[in-house]
Design brief:
alpha/beta; two-stranded parallel sheet; 4-stranded parallel beta sheet; 51% helix
Length: 313
Amino acid sequence: MKKLFIKSGIFCTIILAFCFCIIFLSMKEPWKQILARWTDSEAYMDENELLPAFEYVKKQDQTTQLIIGDSICKQMFADLNIYNPQISIQATSAPMMVTGQYILVEEYLKYHPDATDVFLIMHPNPLIRTFDTEWSYQYAISAYVETDTISLLDQNTLDIIREMYGTFFLKKEVVELIQNSPILRKLYLNYVYMNKENYKMESYFELADQYVKKMYDLCEENGVTLHLYPSPVSEYFRQEVSDLAYGYGGTWMSSQYPDYFEQIYYYPNEWTNDLSHFGGEYATRERLNETIKTAYAQTVLLDYLQLEAEREE
């Protein structure tokens, strides 16, 4: 019996050592790509596109205004940085969630004491996005942890995150291991997908109401104006967005931004390839500028923003 235990121990040690070597190699090139291909993990090799925004908002530059928002906002405004040296344009994508947008605002104001305005521009669907089992950990949660900013979230939000993803998997060193190894990322994300459920909010605007108010209060404390505007919406989503508008009236946001849903600029489905972003000729800088002028014609955003077409005239 003793020999059996010894042999079993040796066997387990060998297996563990082998697994450790595989994981270690899966984080190093060229083995990273080779092992990802062998284990069908190539879909888990992408870099976290949200991370740069966390660094840029801390850049001590001469900007006094911040534009943040979803990927539609990013498509419209991102390459206007060069024409607007006073504006830091750090729009990201929907997985950032409203919680991440709040973090960006807090970090920006911390490093920009002369800030005057923050523009939050989001499609209604990303605005009400919840913590899910597919994208949130891979992009939002990992970014919060890796940038040491997750502690900026409220305790009730941290409790939700711990319940969904596990306290152990919120440790920075663990997150970095998972993010650096396609194999580990695949294993953990599939575990979450198969064993957890998306966080069910009490209302569509539960997280949005909490964190837009936090942004508003923080901006007010710093003498900054927070502007909330919708990203343009394709006709495909008109009914869905209209249904959401019914629940908006009872929120704190509706008291400060009563026209959020009325300000939505709806555009034809023919203008988009994926029903969310502009495509073809409508994604050119000239057409995007026209869309910006139309969508935000009645806002102060256009008082500050310099568009390329105007620059060249």
